[in-house]
Design goal:
There is one protein chain. This protein has about 250 residues and is an all-alpha fold. It contains 10 helices and no strands. The protein starts with a helix and ends in a 29-residue tail after the last helix. Pfam families: DnaJ (PF00226). This is J domain-containing protein. It comes from Gossypium stocksii.
Length: about 250
């Protein structure tokens, strides 16, 4: 029952909030959404990287109502609304979310290594003095300065990964195209071979008939043709024919 009342109260607060939102604010939100870094869904929803799934759902509901095409007159409201929906879908998908967060972790590790190196080099720096005064690394990572650095570093890593993915996809596509071309050439070769065999088989009777005619005509002498006399051999054991030997 308590949860139901809480939900009703939240709905009332949202209605009151949007009643006060001006058209300019709605337009500004559309512009903000469309200018976000395309590969980071957290930016579209204006959420920190450690946001929960409930945070994602609540923030999506709030922002999507703000730029809903039925409420917002901006010509690109529909596009902004779609971008928010896609961002929520990505963050609610476990695999997509894990991928983004793995890049966040990698970005944090790079920034921590950079900060550690900087502290070793410049012991008189402001960063060193903050650490000496007792400001922990955890507190520093909550600062606006670190969060902005982290945001930019995540953009950098996501861009690198996307570029690698596209290059790999391009190579796979080229290889598939090459294999397909080889397959088509192989099919064409076998097709020509079959056609040649069929054509050869189709003329078989004609060739056999021509050969028979040739053999028959070769055995018969033409009419009126005189054949030379066969020469006899002197040696009856020899199988060949030789010219007669003149005797003295």
């Amino acid at each position: 029952m308590g949860e139901s009342n809480s939900s009703v109260d939240e709905d009332l607060l949202l209605k009151e909030f949007f009643a006060e939102v001006s058209e300019v604010e709605r337009d500004n939100e559309v512009v903000r959404i469309l200018s976000c870094f395309k590969l980071n869904p957290f930016e579209f929803l204006k959420l920190p990287f450690d946001s929960s799934l409930d945070d994602v759902k609540k923030q999506y509901r709030k922002l999507s109502l703000m730029v809903h095409p039925d409420k917002c007159k901006h010509p690109q409201a529909k596009e902004a609304f779609g971008a928010l929906a896609k961002a929520q879908q990505q963050l609610l998908d476990q695999q997509e979310r894990d991928y983004i967060l793995s890049q966040v972790t990698a970005a944090k590790e790079e920034l921590r290594a950079k900060r550690k190196k900087q502290l070793k080099k410049d012991t008189a720096s402001k960063l060193k003095s903050l650490v000496d005064e007792g400001k922990s690394e955890l507190e520093y990572e909550k600062s606006e300065e670190f969060q902005q650095e982290l945001k930019l570093k995540v953009r950098e890593l996501l861009t690198e990964q996307e570029w690698r993915r596209r290059k790999m996809a391009m190579r796979i596509s080229e290889e598939e195209g090459r294999l397909k071309k080889d397959e088509e050439e192989q099919k064409e070769m076998w097709k020509r071979k079959r056609e040649h065999e069929e054509q050869w088989e189709g003329t078989r009777e004609q060739r056999v008939s021509s050969w028979r005619d040739f053999m028959k005509s070769g055995k018969k002498s033409k009419k009126g043709e005189l054949r030379p006399p066969k020469l006899k051999t002197e040696d009856p054991n020899k199988s060949y024919v030789q010219r007669p030997v003149k005797r003295g």
